[in-house]
Every structure is written in C-alpha cells, then in structure tokens.
C-alpha cells in the first residue's frame, strides 16, 4: 500500500463513504504482517519509497510464496533476489505475472510499469564478462526502482581503450555502478574520469590470490580516486539500491 492508497482510505473515512470496520480491514496488515516465520514490512514503501525485497537464498519455496502473496496485496513493483532457476519455475506456475531474469537470478513484478523517479542516467559498468551477473543484479534493482539504467560491459583495465571509447556516455551519467573482480581496478579509473558518484562492487571473480573477491574489495576501499564508495562482495542489489536513492528526484 503506497501513500496515495492510504490517503484515499483516510479521505473516504472522513467523508463517510467508508466505514470504520472496513477501513480497519484494509489496514489490518499495517505496519507488518506476522507470517510466523517472517514479519512482512508493509510500511517500508511508505518509509523508504520501495517495498520490502525478498532474498530467496536460504528460504523454502513455500516461504517465498507466502511472503510474495503478502506483498502483492499492496505493492505494484516487487523484487526477489538470488532466486534459483528451479525456484523460479515453481513460482511462475502460481504467479504467471512474474518475470525471471536468469543471468542475475532475479524475479520482478511490474518492472515495465515502474514509475519514473530518476533525475538522470545510472550507468552500470563491468570490468569483464564474468562480472555481468552481479552487474545485472544492480541494473535490474535500479531499474525497478524507477530509473533509466544502461549497461556498458567488458571494459576493464586489461584493455583501457575500450573504456575510453565511451567518454561521451561517461559524461552523461548521474551515477555510476562499477563492477569488477580480480584486482578491482576499474572503479578507480572511472572515478578519475567523472564528476559523479561511483559505487564500486567487488566480485568473487578471479584466481586463487583474489581470495573470493577480498583482493578486489580491498583495492576498491583503498582507491585513490575521490567519490568512490564500496559495497560488499557480489552485492549488486545493494549497489543498485544506493544508486537509485542517489538518483531519486524527490
């Protein structure tokens, strides 16, 4: 339930068109609904502008379905992250409106109808093709939150001329999400070229001494470029969410 819906209920009660009992029935799941195994936060969209996001990892298909049914009572845009392909097949049997994005393992509801809330372009960049799944998680998160998002993939420092070919696009963007594994150098390079915030995302891509993304994480944390902030390893969702908040008009 968003702010407009809540205002309508209150106005209808004020005018006498809606009785107290019926209004209470509509509001019974606010601020949260207790499912026993989860407290579904129905006030999050009112507080933060976007509904609670379902992290599928570690949850059974029955738990995911129950949380999803609860959220669908009032939310138009819903995001499920880290959803395995077989879980997606099962969910789509009960929720045909769902759209599954296998590269990022994200499921969305209402992606195409997401309202336009962004001030400008969010540019999602990956150092390599192997970083694309995390980059796509960031891209879809920012997009369903109402932003214009474009990708530029496989422009890492092993061939810097590839990045420099996009100079015009780099100057157009309002926020950057830069995803890289290995030594994690790309965010520093981008940060030295642009005047907008850069959100760096280390990935677990790399050989043994990359330590599952720790090398990239430490490299990004030690960036000499100003304006670079860092999220956790493989946390494309977190990067997309922060970028959407930075880019939001209101």
UniProtKB/TrEMBL annotation:
The domain of life for this entry's organism is: Bacteria
One example GO MF annotation = hydrolase activity
* Cited SMART domains: AIRC
Q: Which SUPFAM superfamilies match?
A: N5-CAIR mutase (phosphoribosylaminoimidazole carboxylase, PurE)
Q: Which InterPro entries match?
A: P2CMN_synthase_LarB, PurE_dom
- Gene Ontology biological process terms, A to Z: 'de novo' IMP biosynthetic process
| Domain (PurE) ranges | 120-250
Which NCBIfam families is this protein grouped with?
A: LarB
* Protein name per Swiss-Prot or TrEMBL: 1-(5-phosphoribosyl)-5-amino-4-imidazole-carboxylate (AIR) carboxylase
> Which organism's genome codes for this protein?
Desulfobacca acetoxidans (strain ATCC 700848 / DSM 11109 / ASRB2)
